Amino acid sequence: MPEEQHPEWRKLTRAEERVIAHQGTEAPFSGEYEHNARPGTYVCKRCGTPLYRSDDKFDAQCGWPAFDQEIPGMVRRISDRDGMRVEIRCAKCDGHLGHVFSGERFTPKNTRHCVNSISLLFVPTVPASGPP
């Protein structure tokens, strides 16, 4: 569905639209979240759906943020036409996130979600305030 039919979606820049709506890829080592290690949640930049938790992020040294698990039910997997890779998309708005790979043994879960930073927004965890 065209973006204008979803007023709750965030307006995308040209670069964001190229990746999220048209299955593009940002340049490796250029994204703002590749080295982010702060606690929090990564949400879909277009619709705000929570997709990944910082606890599932790891440094794959691949040039993009890598996660070994998505938030259950929030990411769809689609085989690429060539059958070589598996594309990942937001389950709510169908926005392109990147690709998922398995069998690389980076983590015990043996899965790497290679995600474009430009497809995400990071929501930091707010520390609980203790007694005054």
Brief description of this entry?
This protein is mainly β and 132 residues long. The protein has a six-stranded antiparallel beta sheet, with no helix packed on it.
Explain this structure to me?
The chain is mainly beta and 132 residues long. It has one domain: Peptide methionine sulfoxide reductase (Metal Binding Protein, Guanine Nucleotide Exchange Factor, Chain A), CATH 2.170.150.20. It has 1 helix and 9 strands; from the N terminus they run αβββββββββ. The protein is globular. The relative contact order is 0.24. The model has no long low-confidence stretch (mean pLDDT 91).
Arithmetic mean pLDDT: 91
Largest sheet: 6 strands, antiparallel
* Beta-strand proportion: 25-35%
Unreliable spans? none
Q: For the largest beta sheet, what order do the strands appear in spatially?
A: 3-4-8-7-6-5
User: What's the N-to-C terminus distance?
Assistant: 50 Å
User: How many individual domains?
Assistant: 1
Separate helix tally: 1
| SSE string | HEEEEEEEEE
The CATH superfamily title: Peptide methionine sulfoxide reductase
What structural class do the secondary elements suggest?
Answer: mainly beta
Helical percentage? under 10%
What is the CATH architecture descriptor? Answer: Beta Complex
The CATH topology assignment is Metal Binding Protein, Guanine Nucleotide Exchange Factor, Chain A
Kindly provide the name of the CATH class: Mainly Beta
Count the strands?
A: 9
The gyration radius over C-alpha positions equals 15 Å
Taken from the alpha-carbon principal axes, the silhouette is globular
